[in-house]
Amino acid sequence: MYGHLLEDCTLCPRNCHVNRLKGEIGRCRVSGELMVARAALHMWEEPSISGETGSGTVFFSGCSLGCVYCQNHNIAAGMAGKKITIERLAEIFLELQEKKANNINLVTPGHYVPQIMNAIELSKSRGLELPIVYNTSSYEKAETLKLLEGYIDIYLPDMKYYDKAIAKKYSKAEEYFKYASEALQEMVRQVGKLTFREDGVLTKGVIVRHLTLPGYLTDSKKIIKYLYETYGDTIYISIMNQYTPLDKVKDYPEINRCISEKEYEELIDYAIELGIENGFIQEGETALESFIPEFNEEGV
């Protein structure tokens, strides 16, 4: 029904103009066929997403952003994952609901928007009642997100960079902040204020994540300030310390380390000084490779 959007693909800011239905591949590194690397209950999201029973995460293969430090490199580069049909994706949503997932959490879904819309429609016609979470790098076009109005209940976007030079160096996306800020504005417009179940699990709203990079505290502060001054307490801000330097960042020695406890504490103190109340922080040994799930096609 929405397949024509893949014939001359401009879903994301890369504007590749490839015909993915004919197998052509753009910057996301995948064709028009759905590829999923994992579909399972996930306990490591923010508490209001995971709850007690877990978030029903579906990890999609491919990514249009391609950060050099990507924690999910194998799937982001399209090297891991299983090709499935839209019918199968709808079944996966229903299977996760049967496993008592709190929501359906679509991880890196932007390059599959047409297929996902079809799968949501199909699964809802068969009894899916869970909120749908759109978990994204935010390197998105607002006009693509507009297609999702009424399909998505919760947006879980990143806000990675403020500075153009940093975005260019690590993601080859100089205009990242421009696109991400416009995308976030559209997300907030669509889903409105934060709404929770009685047990504290989110059913509607936006949680913005910022992964703190080592050595870039100034850029992190600019992002946190922008988010709070623009949206106040209408969104949650999740400040993450789980950056893990994997093999690929050896060519970037300045980020070939975890962030220090001092750096993270300074950023948290800054957020508190700004007056942020709706926030999440991470404690303990979150910056471990074991924090990254195994992409073994579980549940696919």
UniProtKB/TrEMBL annotation:
Species for this entry: Anaerocolumna cellulosilytica
Cofactor(s) this protein cannot do without: [4Fe-4S] cluster
Keywords: Iron, Iron-sulfur, Metal-binding, S-adenosyl-L-methionine
PANTHER family listed in its UniProt record: FORMATE LYASE ACTIVATING ENZYME, PUTATIVE (AFU_ORTHOLOGUE AFUA_2G15630)-RELATED (PTHR43075:SF1)
Annotated protein name in UniProt: Radical SAM protein
Pfam families cross-referenced by the UniProt entry: Radical_SAM
Domain Radical SAM core: from-to ranges: 58-186
Cofactor note: Binds 1 [4Fe-4S] cluster. The cluster is coordinated with 3 cysteines and an exchangeable S-adenosyl-L-methionine.
Molecular function in Gene Ontology: catalytic activity; iron-sulfur cluster binding; metal ion binding
Sites where the protein binds [4Fe-4S] cluster: C63, C67, C70
InterPro entries assigned to the protein according to its UniProt record, in alphabetical order: Aldolase_TIM (IPR013785), MJ0674-like (IPR040085), Pyrv-formate_lyase-activ_prd (IPR016431), rSAM (IPR007197), rSAM_sf (IPR058240)
Keyword Protein biosynthesis: no
